[in-house]
Amino acid sequence: MEQPETKIELADERFHALLRPGARLERLYTGAVWGEGPVYLPDGRLVWSDIPGNRLLVWQEGRPVEEYLKPSHFQNGHVLDQEGRIVACSHGQRGVVRQEHDGQWKLLVGEYGGQPLNSPNDVVVAKDGSIWFTDPPYGLIQPHEGYGGTQQQPGQQVYRYDPERGTLKVMVRGMVCPNGLAFSPDERVLYVSDTAGTHSGAQYWPETHHHLLAFDLPDGDLADGEALSPRLFAEVSPGFPDGFRVDILGNIWTSSASGVQVYTPDGLRLGEIAVPEIVGNLTFGGPDGCTLFIAASTSLYRIEVAVRGATA
């Protein structure tokens, strides 16, 4: 398999400390249509989505890549919960699903206010076990990434689902197309990307957003009808901040059209790891948590870095 050239763009000297000297960008697999949602499992496997292929793929060191689930009902983002179960956003099922310990998939939530969700896109699990996810309409308006359908929610929201109580609550309103999301290491800040620019100028919405928003989280719960207020964190270019992760120091590692861009907690761009394909999403993994796995268009890549991810 042809290997890419490793190119690092240094915008700030502090980026050096986050990179492992001599590390190389390595292509592990190619053959997907559009890769997304990688999640690293405790047994050393890496599962990720090939959304238009309607399948999940699995990679493990020294073994050929295989299909993990087909059909996957167009699963997109993945994360592990506290019990090590995969929690996934399913465009096709218009809900959030979880793989139980017996291997079966269970629909956790698929509606709000008595109406189907749009097409949940990306997901994180908080320390208290609550599941936060974004709900843009991509699986409805893109027939190659879902079963289609009519949007029945009044907007595109960010939700918090409590699996213990079975309750679903809107946490963020008013975004045009919420996509990726992640918490700061102390869970005092929620970051959410808005990728409305992917369909701007069409019949969907005029906005051309390609930015990350930050939401400061209150100490207590929000009152009914209340929602978090945003502040602009960073505009990502070229392309869009589709999926992203946060490291233990609070730095944001985000996808873009040119590679993985890295920002400090105060929004300063440190630099970029160039990738020869458009990046959809990424995650930290490996035995020490310092391997960055990158799902980029048709291929899966990895590079060793010098910092661990804050979450899976």
Structural class: mainly beta
Distance between the termini: 28 Å
CATH class: Mainly Beta
CATH architectural type: 6 Propeller
| SSE pattern | EEEEEEEEEEEEEEHEEEEEEEEEEEEE
Largest sheet geometry: 5 strands, antiparallel
- The fraction of residues assigned to DSSP E strands is 35-45%
Number of domains: 1
Number of strands: 27
Q: What share of residues is helical?
A: under 10%
Q: What oligomeric state best describes the polypeptide chains here?
A: single chain
Q: How many individual helices?
A: 1
Q: Report the average pLDDT across residues.
A: 94
The geometry reads as: globular
Work out the radius of gyration. 18 Å
Would you tell me which CATH topology applies?
Neuraminidase
Major beta sheet, strand line-up? 1-24-23-22-21
* CATH homology group: TolB, C-terminal domain
Low-pLDDT residue intervals, each spanning 5 or more residues: none
Brief account:
This is SMP-30/gluconolactonase/LRE family protein. The protein is an all-beta fold and 312 residues long.
Explain the overall architecture.
With 312 residues, the protein is an all-beta fold. The strands form seven sheets. The chain has a five-stranded antiparallel β-sheet, with no helix packed on it. Strands 2-27-26-25 form a four-stranded antiparallel β-sheet, with no helix packed on it. Strands 3-4-5-6 form a four-stranded antiparallel β-sheet, with no helix packed on it. It is built from one helix and 27 strands. Strand 17 and strand 18 (189-194) form a beta hairpin. It starts with 7 loop residues before the first strand and ends in an 8-residue tail after the last strand.
